[in-house]
Amino acid sequence: MFLRKTIRIFELLALLLIFLNACYNTNADLIPVKVLSLTPEPNYPLCTDPLDTQQLTDGKIESNPIWTRKGCVGWTESGPVKLLLQAGNGEKTISGKLSLHTARGIQAGVHMPSRIDIYSQEKKGEFYHVGGFTIQEEDYADRKDHWISLEVNEIHSPFFVVIRPSGSYLFIDEIQLATGQNNPNTAAHVPVGDLKACEKDSRERYRESLIAKIVLPKEISEEWTKVFGAEKEVVWVVENPYGHLPLYPKAETIKQSAQEMYLQGTRKDRENGCLGMLNLGQARKSFEISLEGNSRILAGISLRKVAKILAADGSQVFDPLLPLEEGHRLSVPAKEAAYLWIQADLRNMSPGKHKLYIIFRDEMHNIVRSIPVTLQVSDIMLPENCRPMAINWAYTNDLPIWENSQKALADLLDHGINMFVIHPSRIPMPTMNGDWQTQDSEKLASDVSLYQGKGLILLFLNWGPGKGPSWLNPLSQQDISTQKATLQTWLKKLSFLLKSFGLWEQQWALYPVDEPHGEGLPYLLELAKWVKETNPNIQLYANPITTHTHITRSYDLVKLASYIDFWQPALDCATGSAVRFFKVLPRPWLIYAGAPSPAKAASPWNDYRLLSWRAWLAGAKGIGFWSYSDTSGTTAWDDLDGRRPDFAVVYEDKNGPISSRRWEAFRKGLEDFQLLETAYRLDLPFAKKSMDNLKLKVKYLLNRPAIPFNDIESMRQDLIELLDFSGVKQVPGKKKN
To answer: 3-class DSSP state for residue 578?
Structure first.
């Protein structure tokens, strides 16, 4: 027995040694690696320190969770990390294996890198691509640290490594280079150019690897053949224009679709529908799209192509809404679906029922399909006092979308935005001597003139613990009187400047701390006291959040209640940890939420349109989301070219912002909110029971795992018909009990 146990122990030890040898390079094989440059600088607070550059190659392996260890190097929302490295003394040509130590922790939002590329400097200083691969995260266990290795042949120093993060974070604990034999199966050396060219090359290689995964599933293709037989093209009515639009739709979904489109709304609404077209042929086809019906009705109909775009997670999504091609044509690739967006602007249409037809013709002008559309325009003008407040952090310095500020503003107003945020970089900030930069005053003047009279203006300062002016910390208890006096001088000067622009205190508010939680709440409280003491007419805005490490509860907000004029908590804060505070808050408040990243792949239905329904159910009077135009300064047409995926809901164009399904879904949600609020405030004896149960009905719908489009639309149509029957044109200013 003892002998068997001893043998078994030795077997386990041998297996362990084999495993360790497979996972780590032995010290005898390792070549010293020196970091020549590292961009961007590491910025994850739990592990960033002055020794980061040395720690990448110090030979010390950190245990999981590595992102909490100072020996690890971390980045947040940094984009690709670029390292210029030298092997040994830089004179030898090396063949072997490059290894990186990283980790995965899904609950903490930590993912494996998405791709690694290596470039070697060779002839005349030009860099060559010598290896790289896209990482399949599912191959790596969660809640563990991992080694990623790549064989390389005959690399020269310096060599350049590009590491693309997946998600918001990237953590690298160690980089090792081990010698080995030449491997004829490794990638050939491909000339690229300078370091900038290498960055672009890595991005394009990653894009190609993502696109290569998008293929027609065999079972879908077989289903098409079985159901559609010899048909070459199929047109259908999409049930939910804000839902998922598949590149390869199921035949069953198409067969079960409605035969005609029905759109109903009030006289201020924009109603949206969507048609799908599947090309079952072997070549791309182009179809001419035309409308038939009353010319006055057709003048309010617009047709747009729902374009495909690659999201940062590799999904091919239908999001931008582009004009049709020349000749009102829609081009459909072989063995794929394309989608047509229909928008009916009811504002200039007469009340009643209208009929029109959308005609699809092939290249021989033969009619492929005629889709009947019924428009029901109700004679209702929803009152303005039921319109929600709406905000989406549209900064005028968000280029390239804001290249034409007037067109961007017109687009915001057209989609219901009535609260505007001015970025900190466009506000003259206080200094210890009370001065500020003249050019900052000019920037503020420019933004104020743009927004003045359009809605409430928020001056975003972005202060807080560890942020803002270095001399300002109301929690420090040092030089408080000096800090306070300096801030008050600045506030008086700022108020005077704004009045010189024609902007009075009731038209703007200070937005001092972004997403206050934890220590940010007492910081905001002390700052708010100083502001109100200086001028009680200056309004304050706060958007508190709750996190798993700093839970914001109702009692955390009570002390701030008498100082904050505009509240906009995150949705999970307002309906969760601080729900009691907001249930009894006497003044109107908003909620906001951010779509999951990448935002292009977020659901227009769930993450944008239904956000208004959730806000209304919670008792809020307004809605917001991040963001209208955030692309980190890069193009909105490429989700891979910035430091993180884009959050913008529009795309830049020389003629002004191009809309998206997500942006149209948000506007539709604002119209829904106004409809719900109007119906709820009315005191109609014949509808009293129905209105008393309205919130219960909405709550039931929103609590379902998958919220059916038809159920939401059915409730909408019932409310429209109820209001139409009542003939009411205005509603009380306060919600009924």
So the answer is: coil
Tokens representing 123 are: 């002839």
Could you tell me whether strands 419-422 and 456-463 are parallel, antiparallel, or unpaired per DSSP bridges?
A: parallel
What's the rounded Cα separation, in Å, for the pair 25 and 61?
A: 12
Amino acid at 10: F
Distance, in Å, from the CA atom of 246 to the CA atom of 317, rounded to the nearest integer, reads: 8
- pLDDT higher than 80, residue 727: no
H/E stretch holding 115: strand 115-121
Contact in structure between 160 and 33 (CB atoms under 8 Å): no
When computed from its CA atoms, the radius of gyration of the chain, rounded to whole angstroms, is 30
The residue count of the chain comes to: 737
d(CA 381, CA 680) in angstroms, rounded, equals 16
How is residue 429 written in tokens? 């900030």
Tell me how far apart the alpha carbons of residues 284 and 53 are, in angstroms, rounded to a whole number. 52
Domain 23-212 in CATH 1.10.760.10: no
Element (H, E) at 439: helix 438-451
Assess if CATH 1.10.10.10 describes domain 388-682: no
Across the strands, what pairs with 162?
82, 117
AA letter at 90: G
The pair of three-digit structure tokens given for residue 533, joined into one six-digit string? 């003491």
Burial of 124 (0-12, 13-18, 19+ CB in 10 A): exposed
Look at residue 102 and give its three-state secondary structure: strand
pLDDT digits 0-9 by tens, 186-231: 667 889 999 999 999 999 999 999 999 999 999 999 999 999 998 9
316-323 sheet: strands from edge to edge: 233-237, 270-279, 336-345, 301-310, 316-323
- Give strand pairing partners of 116: 133, 163
- 400 prior amide bond cis, ω within 30: yes
Q: How far apart are CA 260 and CA 236, in angstroms?
A: 9
At residue 523's C-alpha, the angle toward residues 70 and 556, to 5°, is: 100
What Cα–Cα distance (Å) separates residue 191 from each residue in 130, 207, 718, 735? 9, 19, 65, 69
Average pLDDT over residues 12-17: 42
Q: Work out the average pLDDT over 30-38.
A: 94
- Taking the C-alpha atoms of residue 328 and residue 331, their distance in angstroms, rounded to an integer, is 10
In whole angstroms, give the CA distance from residue 611 to residue 390.
11
* Residue 637 burial (C-beta neighbours within 10 Å; 0-12, 13-18, 19+): middle
Going from the C-alpha of 204 to that of each of 115, 134, 161, 212, 214, the distances in angstroms are 11, 12, 15, 12, 16
Domain ranges for the chain: 23-212, 218-378, 388-682
What is the full DSSP assignment across 312-327?
TTS-EEEEEEEEPBTT
Helices (H), 316-415: 405-414
14 has pLDDT over 50: no
pTM higher than 0.85: yes
Amino acid identity, position 646 = D
The alpha carbon of residue 542 and the mean position of all alpha carbons in its chain are separated, in whole angstroms, by 21
Handedness of CA 88, 93, 97, 99 (dihedral sign): positive
Q: Cβ distance 615 to 387 under 8 Å?
A: no
Nearest-angstrom CA–CA distance, 458 and 534: 18
CATH homologous superfamily of 218-378: Immunoglobulins (2.60.40.10)
Q: Which residues have C-beta within 8 Å of that of residue 151, sequence separation ≥ 6? A: 96, 97, 131, 180, 183, 186
Residue closest to 40 by CA, chosen among 708, 642, 685: 642
pLDDT above 90: percentage of residues in the chain: 78
Closest CA to 34 of 72, 90, 96: 90
